Amino acid sequence: MNDKRTPVIAGNWKMNLGPSDARAFCIELRARLGDLRGRRVILFPPFVSLPVVADELERTSIEFGGQNLYWEGKGAFTGETSPLFLRELGCSTVLVGHSERRHVFGEKDQECGRKVRAALDAGLVPVLCCGEKLEDREAGDTFQVVRLQLKYGLGKVKAEEAFLVAYEPVWAIGTGRTATPEQAQEVHALIRAWLGEKFGDEAKERIPVLYGGSVKPDNVDELMARPDIDGVLVGGASLKVDSFERLVRFQA
Ligand code: PGA
Question: What is the per-residue pLDDT across 216-243, written as a single tens digit (0 to 9) for each?
């Protein structure tokens, strides 16, 4: 972390915590965090749980957002979700190009770029996820892969717009195998340098770059101690209030 950027702790619930579990989670989290300052906390519930989350987190500083979106505002797109609907529910943000969207559902880099643009146009802050597969890393192609994901994903973004980047190596997601803080820091520094080249120094210092992939209470502190790791995007360990609260209260 770095004093110039507020740390971000984000929970990606994936396809977990339906409406009633989501309500119980939010009531408990709200009580435990109180008016916690200096940390930005974001939840990404499944779409069907968003109304409940919106309801329970009203008048708190805890943010929430969608796990995905479509780039059109409305129309005949069965099964898709409009960025306008997410805004209407009070979402401030949305994930784009999560590894499971890319590798389970076949989402392409260009589609991620359209989604990022649509999110911004609707007033949402997109979190563009990127990360290499194990075979890319073993072939020494990590940064080449990540750079292409950034190039297409952020291709239509202007320097002054607000967005986040989440670096999530595919081999570390849900596997219990976290990137070492050194491995994560190395890629984060490269991402930040790339942001500087594309968007200039102001954006480079401002844009938060989160790490994701098997983040847990016992490794969050050392990850957050690295200068270019501005926050974490957490799956499994975000599903229980106890462990999520511990992540929010990391000590770096
Ligand atoms: P994990 O998931 O923390 O369960 O590895 C992270 C993510 O996919 O965002």
Answer: 999 999 999 999 999 999 999 999 999 9
The structure tokens listed for 13 are 């619930």
CA distances from 97 to 102, 114, 204 (A): 6, 11, 21
In order, the DSSP letters of 81-94 are: --HHHHHHHT--EE
CB within 8 A of 106, min separation 6: which ones? none
Active site residue 28: no
Contact between 6 and 218 under an 8 Å Cβ cutoff? The reply is no
One-letter identity of residue 9:
I
Question: Does position 3 have pLDDT exceeding 90, yes or no?
Answer: no
168 is catalytic: yes
Among candidate residues 56, 111, 132, 168, the one labeled active-site is 168
Dump pLDDT digits (tens) for 27-46: 999 999 998 899 999 999 99
**Cα atoms in the Cβ-side hemisphere of radius 13 Å centred on 226:** 24
Question: With b meaning 16 or more CB within 10 Å and e meaning fewer, what string describes 117-126?
Answer: bbbbebebbb
The percent of residues in the chain predicted with pLDDT above 70, rounded, is 100
C-alpha of residue 213 to centroid of ligand 1, in Å: 5
Q: 114 C-alpha vs ligand 1 centroid, how far in Å?
A: 24
Domain boundaries, the chain: 95-211
Strands 125-130 and 93-96: parallel
Going by CA atoms, what residue is nearest to atom 6 of ligand 1?
Answer: 235
**Domain covering 95-211 in this structure, CATH number:** 3.20.20.70
